[in-house]
Amino acid sequence: MDLNLLKTFDAVMKSQSVNVAAESLGITAPAVSQALNRLREQYSDPLFIREGRGIRPTNFAIELHAEIQEPLSLLVNGANSRHSFDALSSKRTFRVSSHKDIDLMIVPNFAKYRAEHAPNTKIIADIEHTDEQSRQEDLRMRKVDIILSTVPFEDHGYHNQILYEQELVVSLSVNHPRIQGCITEEQFFAEKHILWETQRMDSHALNSVTEKVLPTRKVAYCTSSILTGLHLVSDTEWLCVSARWHAERVAKAGDGQVLDIPFETKRVPIYMTWHQSQRTDNGHQWFREALVHATECYKH
């Protein structure tokens, strides 16, 4: 496929006019028409239909444009943006693979920072992976720019940086019949628990941040979502260990207690991971610095 054919098609789709597209591309209208004819043969579709004095794209043309627009932009502008990135004018899309619980802390702050410093860029933050191999492959192939997670990548070629650390606490209902204001270790293990499972860590978050050999907890419910667990405690007698930031946000509604865990635990780190192939990419460097800025408030 000739890249210039797709550039011409993109220009016609955006302008809905052969003449306007020709002017924007700096070529003649017959050259545009010739390019469209080649594409029509390639895809066996008319692509555009005359409508009054203008043209209207076919359904296939609309679908094709949706598929090629972003990769075409990367092909045409990508190489330059990697080395000469201007945040104020860039229209680059950054992709981050994370977890919804982490996104709650990072995305709003990053969005504010982006709106001020790089208003035309975009962020796609809804990419999640369920296995280690696909995470690493997507970073290596640049399908994802950054991965945010609780465990670093140990394999060669990946860089890890701690953005911030989360303190763990225990949440329970404000109306809990046996625990009010503080909790002992004996009480902690006597109650039923909602277990917060985190990808790429020990199966339960608490087991991964303490050197203490913990007794087996009584499991009432398992979830990979902190918020699900925190909302469940308000209507049950169950306990839920989670990050303090999330626990205090939910407890503001007035139906939850947030207590210190009754034994020593380490903080849960949130890592920013990227592939070494991005080291000379100035846009990627800006993205990393923006994420650091967006999480500064969680370091104190």
CATH superfamily of the largest domain: Periplasmic binding protein-like II
Count of extended strands? 12
Shape: elongated
Q: Please indicate the count of domains.
A: 3
Total helices: the number is 10
* Fraction in helix: 40-55%
- Kindly state the mean pLDDT as a whole number? 87
Q: Which CATH C-level class of the largest domain is it?
A: Alpha Beta
- Which structural category do the helix and sheet elements fall into? alpha/beta
Order of helices and strands: HHHEEHEHEHEEEHEEHEHEEH
CATH topology-level name of the largest domain: D-Maltodextrin-Binding Protein, domain 2
CATH architecture of the largest domain: 3-Layer(aba) Sandwich
Distance between the termini: 53 Å
Strand order of the largest sheet: 4-3-5-12-6
Radius of gyration, in angstroms, nearest whole number: 26 Å
Give the low-pLDDT segments.
none
